[in-house]
Amino acid sequence: MRDTAGDDEGVVLYWRPMCVFCIRLRLRLRFSRLRYTKVNIWRDPDAAAFVRSVANGFETVPTVTVAGHALVNPSKRELWEAVERHAPQALGH
Description:
about 90 residues; four-stranded mixed sheet
């Protein structure tokens, strides 16, 4: 298990298998220079509990933390803006 409060410095993508929205975001990030950690909430009960805590009790994924700031089902643009603001080091310049 890992600390699921979110990485205070980087980017964590909480996802689950078969989630169309997760697949879409992961595909959009595949060839980006963004460095992030993926956490499958079906394999990590603490991660699932964290997602519920920031998504009004639901396991809404993808949920992403950027330097501890939670984004529920963000677009790539929303995620990128949060990364530029809170964790530019994750962009791998």
